[in-house]
Design a protein that fits this description.
Number of helices of chain A: 13
CATH topology of the largest domain in chain A: FAD/NAD(P)-binding domain
Strand content of chain A: 15-25%
CATH architecture of the largest domain in chain A: 3-Layer(bba) Sandwich
Helix content of chain A: 25-40%
Oligomer: homodimer
Largest sheet of chain A: 9 strands, mixed
Distance between the termini of chain A: 25 Å
Structural class of chain A: alpha/beta
Largest interface: A-B, 45 and 45 residues
Chain lengths: 491, 491
C-alpha cells in the first residue's frame, strides 16, 4: 500500500494489494441495525463474518431511535387489540408513503414478509410486550408495543388503506428503546460468532478492474489494514446527514433549514461514496426526514397550523414529520400552531416553545402576528364553523381532532424555523435490489457489493410519506436479506 | 472491439482498443448550443475538433427555444432602454434564482462576464435588434430584443436585486428564434473548421484504468467507430427528460405530473450516464423546469390563482415557471386562474383552455368548483379590498397587476394537471467546475472529460428560480469555457 490518501470515493485497485491482513466470507461495514441483522443472517447461512464499526460500540443511529418497527398485515398485537389489518392495506399504505418514486418490489416483499419478520425480531431476543397504547404518541412513554405512528388515520392515507396502528415498539419503559434493541441484536451478533472490529474505520473498498468488490481498507489502531471479503462487502453505514459536502451537492434544502441532525454521529455518507466509487447508482438523494414533534400531549393535534398568509396548509392530524415537511415549505419557514384555552399545552419536546402571540380574540392574535388583515379571523371562523359540524372541507382533518377553538384566551406557538429548528436525517442512498445487491447505472448488480439501511435507498424514500418505524423496519428486514444474499454468493 | 453491448453507463477500457478509426484534439458529443459554442472556442484556440451529433442536423433542444439569453449587468440594450442594471444586481438575482444549492463560483463568473459574452454572441453572427419590448411576455412576438423574462419585478426577487429586464432575444420576427440562432452558430462551427459527424450516436466513452478519458465509441452508418480525443471529450448532450428510467430514479416527480417534455428528442441522459461511468458526480438531479405559460395576454397576470382549498398560493406576477412549480404542488395538482369580465382572456398557449366555472358572483364560482363554503368568497373579498388599495399583504404581487376582480361575469380557467398538462425539462446533471471539468465524488477533475449545457448542472438548477434565457445563457457561456479549457489541456 503506497498511497496514504485513502478516500471512500476511490476504491483501491485489487492488483495494488500485496497481501491481505485478514479475511472473511462477508465483511460488513457498520454495526447499526442493518449491519447487525445482516451479520446474524450471514452467520446463520454459514458464512464467516467480520463487522467493522467506526464507533467504540454497536447500535449506530438506530440506538438513538424510539425502537419502533413499522409492521402490519395482521400481527398478533394488532389482532389482540382488535385491528384487522391486512397485507393489502399494509401494502397500500407503504405504496402511498413511498411517493412518486416508490420501490414497488421492496414494498411487495416487505408487506408480504412483515409478519414473519416481526417473529424473527422476537426470535433474536427483542422483547415486545404485545399491548396496545391508544392515543396519539410519537413514541410510547410506557413499555407498550403498538401505537399509531404515521398518517394511517389521516387524509389522504386513510382513503388509500384502511387505517390500523402499525408501530411495534420494543419493550422498554419510557422513550427511546432503540438502545435496548440494538444491544440485544449486538449480543446476538456476538453469540452467532461474527467477528467484530470496533474503532475500525473503513477507508475505502478494494475492487478489481471490473469493479468487482474484493474487500476493504480499514483503519484499526491507526494502521490501514486490508480485509479480503471472499463473498462480498455489505455497506450498512447509514445516511449522510453528517456530511455537509454531500448535503450541499445532493440535499441543499436539508442544509438550508438549519436543522439538527438525527444521528449517532457517523452518518457521514462514506458508505454511499464507496458504492459510488465502484459504479453504484444513487437515488432520492434530495429526500430527507424532518420533524418537530408537535405532540404529545395529543390536545395539540386539535390545534390549527397557519402560515404567514394566515392560511392553513395541512391536516394537523397527519404524521408530525409530514406536518413538518409542509411547514418548512411555507414562506420564510414561518408557521404557528393556534390553540385556545381548552386545548392549550406546550409540546413535550419543547416545553420552552416561543408563544408568539396571545389574545382574547383571534383578531388580536392576527394583529400580534402581523398577519394580513382579516386572514386569520377568516381562517378560524371557517375552521370553527366546520369543526363544530365535524368536518374539514379544506384538509380533511378527522373528527376526533376537530374541536372549535373558541375558548379565550387564544395563543400562537411559534413553529417558525428560527424559533423551533427541526431535526432531520437523509433518505437517499445507493440503488439496490431488495436482496441488497447494489446496482450500477445500467441496473446491473456490482459483484461483491451489498447495501442496506440508510446507505441504501429503501422503503422510506419520501419525506412527505415517512412514518416512525419505517427506517428500523426497512433496515432490519433488508439488512437480513443482504446478509443472506452475500453469504450465498459464489464467485 | 469484441462486445457489441455498448452502453453509456460503461466506458470501454482503453487497453481493449486495438486502433483508433479517427482522432482529434477535442471530441464534442452533441451539437446543440453548448456543443456549438464549445466547438467554436476550441477551434479558435487552435484545437482540431470533431463534433458528433446523433441527429441529422444541428441545434439540439436549443433550436426549439425562444432564443433568449439571460444577461444583465448593464448591456447596451438595457442602457438604451433606460435600465441601469448593475453586475451586483445581476449577480444577486442569479444567487437567489439558484436556490439553496446555488453554484456561487459559476454565478460570479457569469455575472462578471455577461456583457462580454453578449458581445461574443453577436460576434458569431447572432443578430440582436437592440430594442426593448415593454410588457409581460413569455417570448417576444416581434423581433425586439429585451424583455422581462423572469421574476425580476416580482417578490421576493425584487427585494434581493433591483429589477431590470434581462432577456436578450435573438432577432427573428415571431416566437422561437432558437432555430435561427443555432443555425448561425452551426454555420460558424463549420466556418471555423470543426469536423461534424451527423447521425452519429456516441455509445460510450473510452477510458483508461485511471478513468482518464481517451475517446469515444460512436455509431456512424451503423458501425461502431473509435475516435481518439487527444486532449479531451466535451459532453454537451442535454438533459434526461427523454429517459424514463433516469426520471424514475432521479426525478420521479417530473414523471408524476405527466408533463410534456421540452426537447429536440435526444435529451436521453446518455451524456450524464457517460460521465457517471468514469466516476463523474451528479447534482440537483431531482430538479426540473416546468411551466404552463399563463400569459400573454398580460391581462391574465391580473388574475388570481387558487387551489382546491380556495386559497391563493403565489404572487401571480412571478415568472410563469415559478407559478407552475407552486401549482403542481397544490393538493391533487388542482388550481384555477380566476378572472372577471374586465380581465378575461384565454392564454395564447392554450386557447382551448377549460373554463371550469362561471358565475355572476364569486360565491357562484366557488359553488361550481365545489370549493369549501365561503373560502373563495373570502379570498376574493380580501384580494379585491387589498388590490383596490394597491397592496397584496399575502404574496406581495406588485401594483401594476393588482386590479380588483369585481366586474361580472366571473370565470375560473382550469390549470389543474388533468386539464392543462405542463411542459418540462430537467435541470440536474454532472458536477463541473465553471471551466467544464467534470468532477468526481472527491471534487477532483476527471482527466479528459468536460461537460456543459444541461448535461452539466449549471446556473439553472432550481425549478423555483428558473427564468427564461437561463439555459441558453448558461449553455453558451459555459460551453465556450469548456471548449477553451479542453483545447488548452496537456497530457
Amino acid at each position: 500500500m503506497t498511497s496514504p490518501a485513502y478516500t471512500p470515493s476511490r476504491a483501491v485497485p485489487h492488483k495494488n494489494v500485496p497481501r491481505w491482513d485478514d479475511e472473511a466470507d462477508v465483511v460488513i461495514v457498520g454495526f447499526g441495525i442493518a449491519g447487525s441483522c445482516a451479520a446474524i443472517e450471514a452467520r446463520n447461512a454459514g458464512a464467516d463474518v467480520i463487522v467493522c464499526e467506526v464507533a467504540a460500540g454497536a447500535g449506530g443511529s438506530a440506538a438513538l431511535s424510539g425502537g419502533e418497527f413499522y409492521i402490519g398485515g395482521g400481527t398478533p398485537v394488532q389482532k389482540a387489540a382488535g385491528f384487522d389489518d391486512t397485507i393489502a392495506d399494509f401494502r397500500a399504505y407503504l405504496m402511498m408513503a413511498g411517493g412518486p418514486g416508490v420501490d414497488e418490489a421492496r414494498v411487495d416483499l416487505y408487506s408480504r414478509e412483515g409478519l414473519a419478520h416481526y417473529q424473527w425480531l422476537q426470535d433474536q431476543g427483542i422483547p415486545f410486550k404485545g399491548t396496545y397504547l391508544p392515543g396519539k404518541w410519537a413514541e410510547p412513554p410506557t413499555d407498550d408495543t403498538l401505537i399509531w405512528c404515521g398518517s394511517e388515520a389521516a387524509w389522504p392515507f386513510r382513503d388509500a388503506a384502511k387505517p390500523a396502528p402499525r408501530g411495534h415498539t420494543a419493550q422498554a419503559v419510557g422513550r427511546g428503546s432503540g438502545k435496548m434493541l440494538t444491544d440485544v441484536l449486538a449480543k446476538r451478533v456476538h453469540d452467532v460468532g461474527a467477528r467484530v472490529r470496533f474503532n475500525a474505520r473503513v477507508l475505502c473498498l478494494v475492487a478489481d478492474e471490473q469493479d468487482s468488490v474484493q474487500g476493504v481498507v480499514v483503519r484499526i489502531d491507526g494502521e490501514p489494514k486490508l480485509i479480503h471479503a471472499r463473498k462480498g462487502v455489505i455497506i450498512t453505514t447509514g445516511g449522510f446527514i453528517c456530511n455537509n459536502d454531500m448535503l450541499r451537492q445532493y440535499a441543499p434544502q436539508a442544509l438550508a433549514i438549519n436543522a439538527m441532525p438525527i444521528t449517532g454521529g457517523n452518518d457521514d455518507g462514506s458508505g454511499i461514496l464507496m458504492g459510488i466509487s465502484v459504479g453504484g447508482a444513487v437515488t432520492h438523494m434530495e429526500q430527507f426526514f424532518v420533524t418537530r414533534t408537535t405532540f404529545p400531549p395529543e390536545s395539540l393535534v386539535k390545534g390549527v397550523f397557519v402560515n404567514e398568509q394566515g392560511q392553513r396548509f395541512i391536516n394537523e392530524d397527519a404524521y408530525h414529520g409530514r406536518v413538518a415537511q409542509y411547514a418548512i415549505r411555507q414562506t420564510h419557514g414561518r408557521t404557528w400552531m393556534l390553540l385556545d384555552n381548552a386545548t392549550f399545552a406546550r409540546p413535550e419536546s419543547l416545553p420552552g416553545i416561543t408563544i408568539a402571540a396571545t389574545g382574547e380574540t383571534w383578531a388580536e392574535v392576527e394583529a400580534e402576528l402581523k398577519l394580513p388583515s382579516g386572514s386569520l379571523q377568516h381562517t378560524m371562523d371557517a375552521y370553527n364553523r366546520d369543526a363544530a359540524a365535524g368536518i374539514d372541507p379544506q384538509f380533511h382533518k378527522q373528527p376526533p381532532w376537530l374541536q372549535p377553538l373558541v375558548e379565550p384566551p387564544f395563543a400562537a406557538l411559534s413553529f417558525s424555523l428560527q424559533d423551533y429548528p427541526p431535526v432531520t436525517f437523509t433518505l437517499g442512498g445507493l440503488v439496490t435490489l431488495p436482496t441488497g445487491e447494489v446496482l450500477d447505472a445500467t441496473g446491473t448488480p456490482i459483484a461483491g457489493l451489498y447495501a442496506a439501511g440508510r446507505a441504501a435507498c429503501g422503503i422510506p424514500r419520501w419525506g412527505d410519506g415517512y412514518s416512525s418505524g419505517m427506517s428500523l423496519g426497512d433496515s432490519s428486514f433488508f439488512g437480513r436479506l443482504a446478509g443472506k444474499r452475500a453469504a450465498s454468493a459464489t464467485r
